[in-house]
Design a protein that fits this description.
The chain is α/β, with parallel strands linked by helices. The protein has two domains: 10-176 and 360-379, Rossmann fold, CATH 3.40.50.2000; 187-359, Rossmann fold, CATH 3.40.50. Helices cover 39% and strands 17% of the residues. It has helices spanning 23-34, 78-91, 101-115, 132-141, 153-163, 187-193, 215-229, 245-255, 290-297, 328-339, 342-356, 361-379, and strands at 10-16, 40-46, 66-69, 95-99, 119-122, 147-150, 170-172, 201-208, 234-241, 261-264, 278-281, 302-305, 321-323. The strands form two sheets. The protein has a seven-stranded parallel sheet with strand order 3-2-1-4-5-6-7, sandwiched between helices. The chain has a six-stranded parallel sheet with strand order 10-9-8-11-12-13, with helices on both faces. The longest helix is centred in the last third of the chain and has 19 residues, at 361-379.
Length: 380
Protein backbone atom coordinates (compact mmCIF):
# COMPACT_ATOMS: atom_id res chain seq x y z
CA UNK A 1 0.00 0.00 0.00
CA UNK A 2 1.27 3.46 -0.87
CA UNK A 3 1.50 6.05 1.85
CA UNK A 4 0.08 9.52 1.78
CA UNK A 5 2.38 12.45 1.17
CA UNK A 6 3.43 13.69 4.60
CA UNK A 7 2.71 17.26 3.45
CA UNK A 8 -0.75 16.47 2.11
CA UNK A 9 -3.49 15.74 4.60
CA UNK A 10 -6.61 13.97 3.40
CA UNK A 11 -9.59 16.28 3.67
CA UNK A 12 -12.59 14.30 4.95
CA UNK A 13 -16.17 15.55 5.23
CA UNK A 14 -18.23 13.68 7.83
CA UNK A 15 -21.96 14.25 7.33
CA UNK A 16 -25.14 13.37 9.22
CA UNK A 17 -28.69 14.69 9.44
CA UNK A 18 -28.32 16.20 12.91
CA UNK A 19 -26.74 15.55 16.29
CA UNK A 20 -29.79 14.32 18.20
CA UNK A 21 -29.01 11.75 20.90
CA UNK A 22 -28.36 8.38 19.29
CA UNK A 23 -25.74 5.81 18.39
CA UNK A 24 -24.95 7.13 14.90
CA UNK A 25 -24.57 10.68 16.18
CA UNK A 26 -22.24 9.61 18.96
CA UNK A 27 -20.22 7.50 16.54
CA UNK A 28 -19.63 10.30 14.03
CA UNK A 29 -18.39 12.59 16.80
CA UNK A 30 -16.00 9.90 18.04
CA UNK A 31 -14.72 9.45 14.49
CA UNK A 32 -14.10 13.18 14.06
CA UNK A 33 -12.55 13.75 17.48
CA UNK A 34 -10.16 10.78 17.27
CA UNK A 35 -9.04 10.61 13.64
CA UNK A 36 -5.30 11.25 13.20
CA UNK A 37 -4.79 14.98 12.62
CA UNK A 38 -1.35 14.30 11.14
CA UNK A 39 -2.96 12.46 8.22
CA UNK A 40 -6.47 13.89 7.98
CA UNK A 41 -8.30 17.21 8.15
CA UNK A 42 -11.85 16.40 9.34
CA UNK A 43 -14.91 18.55 8.70
CA UNK A 44 -18.39 18.00 10.14
CA UNK A 45 -21.56 18.89 8.26
CA UNK A 46 -25.10 18.51 9.64
CA UNK A 47 -28.02 18.95 7.27
CA UNK A 48 -31.13 19.30 9.43
CA UNK A 49 -32.10 21.14 12.61
CA UNK A 50 -31.45 19.22 15.84
CA UNK A 51 -34.01 18.91 18.62
CA UNK A 52 -33.34 19.85 22.23
CA UNK A 53 -31.70 16.51 23.03
CA UNK A 54 -28.45 16.59 21.10
CA UNK A 55 -24.72 15.97 21.29
CA UNK A 56 -23.66 19.47 20.25
CA UNK A 57 -21.95 20.01 23.62
CA UNK A 58 -19.46 17.26 22.73
CA UNK A 59 -17.97 19.65 20.16
CA UNK A 60 -17.17 22.37 22.69
CA UNK A 61 -13.78 20.90 23.59
CA UNK A 62 -12.87 20.17 19.96
CA UNK A 63 -11.69 23.51 18.66
CA UNK A 64 -10.04 21.92 15.63
CA UNK A 65 -13.32 20.48 14.30
CA UNK A 66 -14.51 22.54 11.33
CA UNK A 67 -18.30 22.49 11.61
CA UNK A 68 -20.88 23.58 9.03
CA UNK A 69 -24.64 23.36 9.45
CA UNK A 70 -27.41 23.54 6.84
CA UNK A 71 -31.14 23.84 7.41
CA UNK A 72 -32.85 21.39 5.09
CA UNK A 73 -36.63 21.45 5.40
CA UNK A 74 -36.75 18.03 3.78
CA UNK A 75 -34.98 15.90 1.14
CA UNK A 76 -36.56 17.97 -1.64
CA UNK A 77 -35.49 21.41 -0.38
CA UNK A 78 -33.80 22.61 -3.60
CA UNK A 79 -32.38 25.81 -2.10
CA UNK A 80 -30.50 23.78 0.51
CA UNK A 81 -29.31 21.35 -2.17
CA UNK A 82 -27.72 24.29 -4.01
CA UNK A 83 -26.10 25.56 -0.81
CA UNK A 84 -24.58 22.17 -0.05
CA UNK A 85 -23.38 21.85 -3.65
CA UNK A 86 -21.64 25.23 -3.43
CA UNK A 87 -20.04 24.19 -0.14
CA UNK A 88 -18.71 20.94 -1.61
CA UNK A 89 -17.41 22.69 -4.72
CA UNK A 90 -15.66 25.40 -2.69
CA UNK A 91 -14.01 23.06 -0.17
CA UNK A 92 -13.00 20.32 -2.65
CA UNK A 93 -12.99 17.42 -0.18
CA UNK A 94 -10.99 14.25 -0.82
CA UNK A 95 -13.39 11.83 0.89
CA UNK A 96 -17.00 11.83 2.07
CA UNK A 97 -18.10 9.79 5.09
CA UNK A 98 -21.87 9.77 5.58
CA UNK A 99 -24.24 8.52 8.28
CA UNK A 100 -27.99 7.78 8.10
CA UNK A 101 -30.22 7.88 5.03
CA UNK A 102 -30.75 11.61 4.43
CA UNK A 103 -27.04 12.33 4.57
CA UNK A 104 -26.18 9.21 2.55
CA UNK A 105 -28.72 10.19 -0.11
CA UNK A 106 -27.96 13.91 -0.47
CA UNK A 107 -24.17 13.67 -0.45
CA UNK A 108 -24.04 10.65 -2.77
CA UNK A 109 -26.32 12.32 -5.32
CA UNK A 110 -24.17 15.46 -5.38
CA UNK A 111 -20.97 13.42 -5.43
CA UNK A 112 -22.19 11.25 -8.31
CA UNK A 113 -22.97 14.18 -10.59
CA UNK A 114 -20.46 16.83 -9.54
CA UNK A 115 -17.56 15.56 -7.38
CA UNK A 116 -16.77 11.90 -8.14
CA UNK A 117 -14.79 11.48 -4.92
CA UNK A 118 -14.56 8.37 -2.71
CA UNK A 119 -17.65 8.10 -0.54
CA UNK A 120 -18.20 5.83 2.45
CA UNK A 121 -21.60 5.36 4.07
CA UNK A 122 -22.78 3.70 7.28
CA UNK A 123 -25.85 1.47 7.61
CA UNK A 124 -26.55 1.55 11.34
CA UNK A 125 -29.53 -0.72 11.70
CA UNK A 126 -31.94 -3.25 10.25
CA UNK A 127 -34.65 -1.13 8.62
CA UNK A 128 -37.68 -3.38 8.22
CA UNK A 129 -40.00 -0.49 7.37
CA UNK A 130 -37.78 1.32 4.85
CA UNK A 131 -39.78 3.03 2.11
CA UNK A 132 -39.53 1.56 -1.39
CA UNK A 133 -37.98 4.66 -2.95
CA UNK A 134 -35.26 4.73 -0.31
CA UNK A 135 -34.42 1.09 -1.01
CA UNK A 136 -34.26 1.85 -4.75
CA UNK A 137 -32.11 4.95 -4.18
CA UNK A 138 -29.67 3.01 -1.99
CA UNK A 139 -29.49 0.21 -4.57
CA UNK A 140 -28.62 2.62 -7.40
CA UNK A 141 -26.24 4.80 -5.37
CA UNK A 142 -24.37 1.76 -4.03
CA UNK A 143 -22.71 1.46 -7.45
CA UNK A 144 -20.79 4.70 -6.89
CA UNK A 145 -20.12 4.06 -3.18
CA UNK A 146 -16.61 3.02 -2.14
CA UNK A 147 -17.71 1.04 0.93
CA UNK A 148 -20.88 0.46 2.92
CA UNK A 149 -19.90 0.01 6.56
CA UNK A 150 -22.05 -2.16 8.85
CA UNK A 151 -21.40 -3.22 12.42
CA UNK A 152 -22.55 -6.83 12.25
CA UNK A 153 -23.19 -9.78 9.94
CA UNK A 154 -26.89 -9.42 10.71
CA UNK A 155 -27.04 -5.93 9.17
CA UNK A 156 -24.83 -6.97 6.25
CA UNK A 157 -27.05 -9.92 5.33
CA UNK A 158 -30.28 -7.99 5.73
CA UNK A 159 -29.17 -4.85 3.84
CA UNK A 160 -27.52 -6.79 1.02
CA UNK A 161 -30.72 -8.78 0.51
CA UNK A 162 -33.09 -5.81 0.91
CA UNK A 163 -31.22 -3.52 -1.49
CA UNK A 164 -29.93 -6.25 -3.85
CA UNK A 165 -26.34 -5.05 -3.33
CA UNK A 166 -23.45 -7.52 -3.61
CA UNK A 167 -21.87 -8.40 -0.27
CA UNK A 168 -18.43 -7.45 -1.61
CA UNK A 169 -19.50 -3.79 -1.40
CA UNK A 170 -19.82 -4.06 2.41
CA UNK A 171 -17.25 -4.02 5.19
CA UNK A 172 -17.91 -5.00 8.81
CA UNK A 173 -16.64 -2.36 11.22
CA UNK A 174 -18.05 -3.07 14.71
CA UNK A 175 -19.07 -0.03 16.74
CA UNK A 176 -16.32 1.20 19.03
CA UNK A 177 -16.59 2.13 22.67
CA UNK A 178 -14.42 4.03 25.08
CA UNK A 179 -13.15 1.41 27.51
CA UNK A 180 -13.71 2.74 31.03
CA UNK A 181 -12.81 1.65 34.52
CA UNK A 182 -15.54 -0.61 35.89
CA UNK A 183 -15.41 1.01 39.35
CA UNK A 184 -18.85 2.39 40.18
CA UNK A 185 -17.65 5.94 40.78
CA UNK A 186 -20.41 8.32 41.78
CA UNK A 187 -22.92 5.54 42.48
CA UNK A 188 -24.40 7.20 45.57
CA UNK A 189 -24.60 10.60 43.90
CA UNK A 190 -26.29 9.26 40.78
CA UNK A 191 -28.78 7.20 42.78
CA UNK A 192 -29.64 10.34 44.72
CA UNK A 193 -30.22 12.30 41.53
CA UNK A 194 -32.68 9.68 40.31
CA UNK A 195 -34.44 9.44 43.69
CA UNK A 196 -33.33 5.86 44.28
CA UNK A 197 -32.62 4.51 47.79
CA UNK A 198 -28.91 3.97 48.41
CA UNK A 199 -29.44 0.26 49.20
CA UNK A 200 -31.61 -0.35 46.13
CA UNK A 201 -30.95 -3.04 43.53
CA UNK A 202 -31.44 -1.33 40.17
CA UNK A 203 -32.25 -2.85 36.80
CA UNK A 204 -32.04 -0.31 34.00
CA UNK A 205 -32.17 0.59 30.35
CA UNK A 206 -31.09 3.59 28.29
CA UNK A 207 -32.93 3.80 24.97
CA UNK A 208 -35.03 5.84 22.61
CA UNK A 209 -38.74 5.41 23.26
CA UNK A 210 -39.62 3.96 19.86
CA UNK A 211 -41.14 0.64 18.80
CA UNK A 212 -37.78 -0.90 17.90
CA UNK A 213 -36.49 -0.71 21.48
CA UNK A 214 -39.32 -2.84 22.91
CA UNK A 215 -39.66 -0.80 26.10
CA UNK A 216 -43.30 -1.87 26.53
CA UNK A 217 -42.08 -5.48 26.87
CA UNK A 218 -39.48 -4.36 29.41
CA UNK A 219 -42.17 -2.60 31.46
CA UNK A 220 -44.34 -5.75 31.42
CA UNK A 221 -41.30 -7.80 32.44
CA UNK A 222 -40.54 -5.30 35.21
CA UNK A 223 -44.04 -5.80 36.63
CA UNK A 224 -43.56 -9.58 36.65
CA UNK A 225 -40.13 -9.25 38.30
CA UNK A 226 -41.31 -6.81 40.98
CA UNK A 227 -44.40 -8.82 41.85
CA UNK A 228 -42.54 -12.14 41.72
CA UNK A 229 -39.28 -11.27 43.45
CA UNK A 230 -40.71 -10.38 46.85
CA UNK A 231 -37.97 -7.76 47.17
CA UNK A 232 -38.84 -4.32 48.47
CA UNK A 233 -35.57 -2.70 47.38
CA UNK A 234 -35.65 -3.66 43.68
CA UNK A 235 -36.21 -0.82 41.19
CA UNK A 236 -36.31 -0.34 37.43
CA UNK A 237 -34.79 2.79 35.90
CA UNK A 238 -35.66 3.49 32.25
CA UNK A 239 -33.91 6.52 30.77
CA UNK A 240 -34.58 8.01 27.35
CA UNK A 241 -36.83 10.07 25.13
CA UNK A 242 -39.10 9.57 22.13
CA UNK A 243 -42.63 9.55 20.78
CA UNK A 244 -43.78 6.62 22.97
CA UNK A 245 -42.80 8.25 26.26
CA UNK A 246 -46.42 9.10 27.21
CA UNK A 247 -47.56 5.54 26.43
CA UNK A 248 -44.78 4.06 28.56
CA UNK A 249 -45.56 6.35 31.49
CA UNK A 250 -49.25 5.47 31.28
CA UNK A 251 -48.44 1.74 31.32
CA UNK A 252 -46.47 2.18 34.53
CA UNK A 253 -49.17 4.34 36.13
CA UNK A 254 -51.89 1.82 35.24
CA UNK A 255 -49.82 -0.89 36.96
CA UNK A 256 -49.58 1.26 40.08
CA UNK A 257 -45.80 0.95 40.01
CA UNK A 258 -44.68 4.54 39.37
CA UNK A 259 -42.61 4.44 42.56
CA UNK A 260 -40.71 1.30 41.47
CA UNK A 261 -40.44 1.73 37.68
CA UNK A 262 -38.90 5.15 37.10
CA UNK A 263 -38.95 6.74 33.65
CA UNK A 264 -36.48 9.60 33.40
CA UNK A 265 -35.35 12.04 30.66
CA UNK A 266 -32.46 11.19 28.35
CA UNK A 267 -28.95 11.29 29.76
CA UNK A 268 -25.56 10.14 28.57
CA UNK A 269 -25.37 6.44 29.40
CA UNK A 270 -22.21 7.03 31.45
CA UNK A 271 -24.30 9.15 33.80
CA UNK A 272 -26.67 6.21 34.35
CA UNK A 273 -24.54 3.04 34.41
CA UNK A 274 -22.95 3.60 37.85
CA UNK A 275 -26.41 3.31 39.43
CA UNK A 276 -27.25 -0.01 37.76
CA UNK A 277 -26.79 -3.61 38.87
CA UNK A 278 -28.23 -5.08 35.64
CA UNK A 279 -28.54 -3.51 32.18
CA UNK A 280 -31.35 -4.59 29.84
CA UNK A 281 -31.70 -4.43 26.05
CA UNK A 282 -35.30 -5.28 25.10
CA UNK A 283 -35.08 -4.50 21.36
CA UNK A 284 -37.32 -6.11 18.75
CA UNK A 285 -34.61 -5.67 16.11
CA UNK A 286 -31.08 -4.33 16.33
CA UNK A 287 -27.71 -4.00 14.71
CA UNK A 288 -24.97 -3.86 17.31
CA UNK A 289 -26.18 -1.83 20.32
CA UNK A 290 -23.50 0.56 21.54
CA UNK A 291 -25.29 0.88 24.88
CA UNK A 292 -24.90 -2.84 25.47
CA UNK A 293 -21.15 -2.71 24.83
CA UNK A 294 -20.77 0.32 27.09
CA UNK A 295 -22.60 -1.48 29.89
CA UNK A 296 -20.34 -4.51 29.45
CA UNK A 297 -17.26 -2.27 29.53
CA UNK A 298 -18.50 -0.69 32.77
CA UNK A 299 -18.78 -4.10 34.44
CA UNK A 300 -22.59 -4.10 34.42
CA UNK A 301 -24.03 -7.54 33.52
CA UNK A 302 -26.45 -7.54 30.58
CA UNK A 303 -29.74 -9.21 29.70
CA UNK A 304 -30.52 -8.71 26.00
CA UNK A 305 -33.00 -9.98 23.44
CA UNK A 306 -31.80 -12.48 20.85
CA UNK A 307 -32.03 -10.22 17.78
CA UNK A 308 -29.79 -8.81 15.05
CA UNK A 309 -26.11 -8.59 15.92
CA UNK A 310 -26.60 -9.19 19.66
CA UNK A 311 -25.97 -12.99 19.53
CA UNK A 312 -22.74 -12.23 17.63
CA UNK A 313 -21.47 -10.62 20.85
CA UNK A 314 -23.39 -12.23 23.73
CA UNK A 315 -22.72 -15.90 24.41
CA UNK A 316 -25.69 -16.90 26.55
CA UNK A 317 -24.69 -17.67 30.12
CA UNK A 318 -21.07 -16.65 29.57
CA UNK A 319 -20.81 -12.88 29.01
CA UNK A 320 -24.52 -12.07 29.24
CA UNK A 321 -27.99 -13.61 29.22
CA UNK A 322 -30.24 -13.78 26.14
CA UNK A 323 -34.03 -13.54 26.14
CA UNK A 324 -36.59 -14.04 23.40
CA UNK A 325 -37.82 -10.84 21.68
CA UNK A 326 -41.42 -9.69 22.17
CA UNK A 327 -41.63 -11.99 25.18
CA UNK A 328 -41.96 -10.30 28.57
CA UNK A 329 -42.02 -13.69 30.34
CA UNK A 330 -38.65 -14.66 28.86
CA UNK A 331 -37.22 -11.24 29.70
CA UNK A 332 -38.51 -11.41 33.29
CA UNK A 333 -37.13 -14.94 33.78
CA UNK A 334 -33.63 -13.95 32.65
CA UNK A 335 -33.65 -10.75 34.73
CA UNK A 336 -34.67 -12.69 37.84
CA UNK A 337 -32.03 -15.34 37.13
CA UNK A 338 -29.35 -12.66 37.06
CA UNK A 339 -30.78 -10.70 40.00
CA UNK A 340 -30.81 -13.79 42.23
CA UNK A 341 -27.30 -14.98 41.29
CA UNK A 342 -24.48 -12.86 42.69
CA UNK A 343 -21.81 -15.29 41.45
CA UNK A 344 -23.46 -15.39 38.03
CA UNK A 345 -23.45 -11.59 37.82
CA UNK A 346 -19.78 -11.41 38.82
CA UNK A 347 -18.72 -14.11 36.35
CA UNK A 348 -20.70 -12.56 33.51
CA UNK A 349 -19.25 -9.12 34.25
CA UNK A 350 -15.68 -10.51 34.11
CA UNK A 351 -16.28 -12.30 30.81
CA UNK A 352 -17.97 -9.22 29.35
CA UNK A 353 -14.91 -7.11 30.12
CA UNK A 354 -12.76 -9.57 28.16
CA UNK A 355 -15.20 -9.42 25.25
CA UNK A 356 -15.24 -5.64 24.88
CA UNK A 357 -11.46 -5.28 24.67
CA UNK A 358 -11.90 -6.03 20.95
CA UNK A 359 -14.18 -3.00 20.58
CA UNK A 360 -11.84 -0.26 21.79
CA UNK A 361 -11.97 3.12 20.04
CA UNK A 362 -8.25 3.31 19.08
CA UNK A 363 -8.45 -0.04 17.23
CA UNK A 364 -11.61 1.10 15.43
CA UNK A 365 -10.11 4.43 14.33
CA UNK A 366 -7.03 2.71 12.90
CA UNK A 367 -9.25 0.42 10.82
CA UNK A 368 -11.33 3.34 9.54
CA UNK A 369 -8.21 5.34 8.64
CA UNK A 370 -6.82 2.34 6.74
CA UNK A 371 -9.94 2.18 4.55
CA UNK A 372 -9.73 5.92 3.86
CA UNK A 373 -6.05 5.85 2.91
CA UNK A 374 -6.35 2.78 0.69
CA UNK A 375 -9.25 4.15 -1.35
CA UNK A 376 -7.73 7.63 -1.52
CA UNK A 377 -4.47 6.20 -2.89
CA UNK A 378 -6.34 4.09 -5.44
CA UNK A 379 -8.04 7.22 -6.80
CA UNK A 380 -4.84 9.26 -7.07
Amino acid sequence: MNHTNSNKKIKVLFTIGNLSVGGAEKLILNQIKNIDRNKFTPYLCTLFTSDANNYSEMLKDSRDVLYTHFYFKGPWDLVSWVRVFNFLRTENFDIFCCHLFESNFIIRILNLFFCQKPVFIFEHNIYWQKEWWKILADRILARSTSRIFVDSNAILDFTSNQEKVDKSKFAILPYPIELTDKIKHGREKIKGEFGLPQDSFVIGAVARFVEQKGISYLIKAAEKVLRGSGSSNMYFLIVGYGKLEFDHRKMVEDMGLSDRILIKPAKNIKEVLPALDIFVISSLWEGQPIAMLEAMAAGCPVVATKVGGIPEIIVDGKNGLLAEPKDSDSLATRILELARGLNLRNNIAKEALLTVTDYGLPVYIKKLEKYFVEVYQERK
